[in-house]
Amino acid sequence: MNTADQYLKAIYLAQRMEEGPASTGTLADLLGVSPASVNEMVGKLQDKDLVDHEKYKGASLTDEGLERAHEALQTYCIIERFLANVLEVDEFRDEARALESVIDDTVADRLDTIIDRPEQCPDCFDPEADCCSLLEVCGPAN
Amino acid sequence: MSLGQRVSTDHQLTRLLQIGVVLEEVVESRAAHHLESLPAEARAEIDREVRELLTDATEESADHRDRLEALIDDLEAETVGYEEINQLVDAQYGPPEDTDGVLYDQLCNEETAYKFYDDLIEAIEASDSTFAVDRDRVLETLREIRAEEKEGVEEVTEIMERRA
Question: C-alpha angle B1/B115/B72, rounded to 5°?
Fold first, then answer.
């Protein structure tokens, strides 16, 4: 998953958590980067019409941005579910975060052929717990 | 969240190699399923060329798996057994409608594996880290496997073009 998709996913989750535009601070926390980096990338995403940014309010996904964010979150869900259920990794959240930049969408799609992912994915993703709420091992975020 | 594409720890390398093993197991299992699941009529239609392609794909995947497992052994980790993945494939498997569907799925298998190894090699090259296994040996093994996956993509593509 490329960096732009990771940002779109983070904006989507932040919007759900904040029930409104995603603030720079929340995005910086979610992505583990500086607020300056967030502002720079949000500007690039705005140039591509994937994000609307309003000063002092935050970033909101456009329809196209939302579609890409959904796909990115699905890819992330596949990685988490694969790590938790197939490789039986306890720290599946941390590892999914570490691996998402190296795992391409096509690879995730192939892994998806062996995992049992709910139809409503990614709507069942719980941003607070940082995993799918329907995943058996999904407890509070670590 | 890590935004960089680089592999810098033994743990990360091991995990990615384990994913590589699972991908090979999926390829191996799906190719075997394709041969078994097609109705007798369609199976008879699968000419020798396609049958050989699927048989070679299962053998090649098993060989790739062995080579990845040798690295994982040296990293003192384990892999998910073939039977376990075979059962998971079985549980979710929907057979392609015809021979073209089989070939298309096989193309996806080969392309995905190629992309995975290509990204993994790039991510290892982007890091200066040393690992518990010899870095050059890891890269050499992965480059060899990647080259074979590329050949696999070309082979399926040629067959598809001939049949079109």
Answer: 75
